[in-house]
Amino acid sequence: MNESELPVFNHVPVMLDEAMEQLNLHPGKLWVDATAGYGGHLQEMIKRLNGDGKFIGIDRDNQTLSLLKEKISGKANLFHANYSDIESVLEQAGETQITGGILADLGVSSRQLDDADRGFSFLRDGPLDMRMDQTQALTAEKIVNSYSEKELAEIIFIYGEERHSRRIAKRIVENRPFKNTLELADLVRSCVRPSKFDESHPATRTFQALRIEVNDELGNLKSFLRKGIELLAPGGRFVVITFHSLEDRIVKQIFKEAALNCICPPRQPICTCTKRSQLLVITRKPIVADIKEVLANPRARSAKLRAGEKLVSQENH
Ligand SMILES: C[S@@+](CC[C@H](N)C(=O)[O-])C[C@H]1O[C@@H](n2cnc3c(N)ncnc32)[C@H](O)[C@@H]1O
What we know:
By secondary structure, the protein is of the alpha/beta class. Helix content is about 40%, strand content about 10%. Strand 2 (about 55-60), helix 3 and strand 3 (about 75-80) form a beta-alpha-beta unit. The structure holds S-adenosylmethionine. S-adenosylmethionine binds near residues 11 and 108.
């Protein structure tokens, strides 16, 4: 499907006001939207600051980025990159520190999901692709048709939190090769007993697991968060919106580690470590979308926002 054939709709940015508030926007600083997508959050930052500042947008998806370029028309410096390469993006932009803040609104956009050719959807038939960056070699098709039964079961269990992972992996191996999303979704459905407590599509968790593996989403997230914290200037904010518990746990954990001011054993009387607190965690509990937004935009239902502020570097204790 080419771009002009795609359904026309707006990707509704999730928790827009909450994200802007937590970024603590103020003029004259450098702001990075690490998942620029269709520019909902990025455009709002630029608008609220009347363009006073520098703006960088990053996205791993070239197709998304070329649409964004038309919309943003020179108001932000856009980069086709993985956010885990944030330090090299900054270098290319001629910057050394992020003085304002970083925003990341993780996952796939509605448009990526709705385009059957991208292979993210278990509701529309398309190739088993699921790559966010279409220049990368690994696709969902390669994983499904070449990983061992054990590897598939592990991925589906860990990344999909799917209790029927072993049965699904066994049936995949017995029935492969698979080429399209619906044939895989049907097979998964045949392995999972319907539950009155879970109304989600039976293939939801398996597709989530494959998507995470194809795009190394958790590995990239960890490295992005660590590098992002380093690159923030004191007072700079880090705001992250996640959509499932695996991502939220990583953000919570890495923010917590960055906030620690000492990692010496608890009984040691004098601190001998060099660990100093880098981040003030602003959201002890994640912020969630209000009911009005959840009713208007189902994507907001599982969204969790966490924010931290970079601290001035501290001397040894
Ligand atoms: C939920 S959408 C962001 C939507 C955006 N906030 C808006 O309002 O339009 C997530 C975007 O992040 C991008 N993305 C996912 N993983 C990425 C990564 N590792 N590096 C850069 N971009 C990534 C996806 O391609 C997608 O466009």
